[in-house]
Amino acid sequence: MGRDERDALKIGVIGCGNISTTYLRNAGLFAGVAMVACADLMPEMAKLRADEFGLRAVGIDALLADPEIDLVLNLTIPAAHHAVSLSALSAGKHVFTEKPLATSHAEGRHLVEEAGRRGLLIGSAPDTFLGAAGRRARRLVDEGAIGKPVAGTAFMMGRGMEHWHPNPQFYYQPGGGPVLDMGPYYLTMLVNLLGPVASVSALSARGQDERLITAEGPFQNTRFTVGTPTTLLSLLRFRSGAVVTFGASWDVFRHSNMPIELHGTEGSLRLPDPDTFGGVVGLSHRGADWADHDTQGDLYGARNWPYAAPDRANYRMIGVADLARALRDGSRPRASGALALHVLEIMEAILASGEAGATIGLAGEIERPEALGDGDAAALLADRA
Ligand SMILES: NC(=O)c1ccc[n+]([C@@H]2O[C@H](COP(=O)([O-])OP(=O)(O)OC[C@H]3O[C@@H](n4cnc5c(N)ncnc54)[C@H](O)[C@@H]3O)[C@@H](O)[C@H]2O)c1
To answer: Across the chain, where does the E strand assignment appear?
Structure first.
């Protein structure tokens, strides 16, 4: 074992489902992190991943008790995030969790407070805002390319899951819905660019009371009852004074809205899908034609992918590598629990406002994460010389 590997943050994965393959595959791209063991409620899933990626498959309790493991990467389902992260913190491990941080603001706050009390770090997905497109947008905003941000729009719209997902019912129950499922990508990007949100007002709708599963699988051609709003249109007032419309819907067959546009006193900025790490960032200075920059060729854009170029750049793990760096130099992780907690607070307020029709003020006072420069990003990569 070389010096770099000995010094690396040792990671144990809990939750060996779908997304775990992306994290396990990407870990080798980054410096200062080493995947060593994995566990799952279903031991055969842990065994499968362990064999695929050369790790130790262990029981959950054994992973938590293992003194070699510094950080637990929580890739379980959202309903289990709080319990699994809490047991990891209680075992003295740092945590990085998939989104959302927890399914309620109260549980999310509990985790952030518990980590603070124990002197441990907690980080959370999404880390897409640290990709090439998010970095470029942040630099442009910070340099004043659009002046003072005044207004914006963000839209996540689609027709839902039942035409491709064999088991989509859970997406349409309380704890699911388009805001909790996809909101973290849009809202984390917006908070990284504009700072914290001060108040939220929203309206909600439900296109269908029942949905028909057309995807192949055991439930094909069966119907299920929709238990949560499937369209939420919200107005976000940022503490900076900027106001942004955020729409999240699974009632839309086709649309022409950009994922995110921001308009300031000097110009406009448009961003690609914030669920990706690369894509085209466009800037218009005082009404000039869009100057588009394709970040796909930049560091962490799809074309730099060292294996096979995926159609959507996917560098999940950059947030974990940044947290490992924060532990080494005593600074704060960028994809932090505090940021994810504020995003959870916004999402909970959108849902509550959609129910009640009233404006909801938010208490969250967070600072934007420190900007990640291209050089900082390069320093997170493993030396593949
Ligand atoms: N699948 C994706 O494309 C994707 C993309 C981005 C984010 N995510 C997020 O990643 C997380 C996991 O999603 P997924 O698609 O991999 O789900 P999945 O259902 O495929 O895998 C989850 C795994 O966690 C295990 N698990 C559940 N509860 C557990 C517990 N209490 N202790 C130990 N193991 C437990 C399950 O047995 C399963 O193997 C979710 O939070 C999701 O929002 C998924």
So the answer is: 9-14, 33-39, 56-57, 71-74, 94-97, 122-124, 149-157, 197-205, 210-212, 223-225, 231-238, 243-249, 260-264, 267-271, 280-285, 291-294, 360-361
Q: Is the confidence at residue 312, as pLDDT, over 70? A: no
Å from CA of 33 to ligand 1 middle: 21
Kindly state if the Cβ of 259 falls inside 6 Å of ligand 1: no
- Output the CA angle 211-163-221, nearest 5 degrees: 60
Residue minimizing CA distance to atom 43 of ligand 1: 99
Residue whose CA is at the smallest distance from ligand 1 atom 2: 19
Separation CA 356–CA 345 (nearest Å) = 16
Residues paired with residue 283 on neighbouring β-strands, in sequence order: 269, 291
pLDDT given for residue 7 in this prediction: 85
Closest atom of ligand 1 to 275 CA is 6
Q: Which residues contact 35 (CB under 8 A, 6 or more apart)?
A: 11, 13, 23, 24, 27, 53, 55, 73
Mean pLDDT of 150-167: 95
CATH of domain 130-305+337-361: 3.30.360.10
How far apart are the C-alpha atoms of 168 and 380, rounded to whole Å?
Answer: 36
Query: What percent of the chain has pLDDT above 70?
Result: 95
**Ligand 1 geometric centre to CA of 18 (Å):** 6
What is 154-206 written as a DSSP string?
Answer: EEEE---STTT-SS-GGGGSTT-HHHHHHHHHHHHHHHHHH--EEEEEEEEE-
Hey, where are the domains in the chain? 3-124, 130-305+337-361
* pLDDT the model gives residue 240: 97
b/e code 178-197 from CB counts within 10 Å (16+ = b): bbbbbbbbbbbbbbbbbbbb
40 touches ligand 1 (CB under 6 Å): yes
Query: Is 130-305+337-361 in the same CATH topology as 3-124?
Result: no
We find that the CATH architecture of domain 3-124 is: 3-Layer(aba) Sandwich (3.40)
Q: Average per-residue pLDDT in the chain?
A: 94
78 lines ligand 1 (CB under 6 A): yes
Q: Is the CB of 14 under 6 A from ligand 1?
A: yes
86 lines ligand 1 (CB under 6 A): no
